[in-house]
Amino acid sequence: MRGKKMIMNLYTINDKVVKEAGPIFQAKNDAVAIRSFIKMIRNESVLELVSLGTYDTETMLIISMTPLVVNIPSGEVAE
After folding, report:
1. pLDDT above 80 (res 77)
2. pTM for the model
3. What DSSP string runs through 36-59?
4. Which residue(s) pair with 10 in the sheet?
5. All residues at 6 or more sequence positions from 70 whose CB lies less than 8 Å from its CB, including other chains
6. What does the DSSP 8-state code read for residue 28?
């Protein structure tokens, strides 16, 4: 029996200094991705969270989009 179908968003971390992106990770929405991103960066101002598209966990279909930097509201990044 298959689990509940979910469409997941795809994100990457972009390093603005070395001009390289990766790794790709999935989250169900920007808020969850922001929380994950904050845990990863801890004051790394040269990194940015970038949305890449969606991923269907049932069909394994990836739908890409133009990369979009996710705006992180001030106050979201905790020390």
Report:
1. no
2. 0.61
3. HHHHHHSS-TTEEEEEEEEEETTT
4. 26, 53
5. 11, 30, 33, 34, 37, 48, 49, 50, 51
6. S
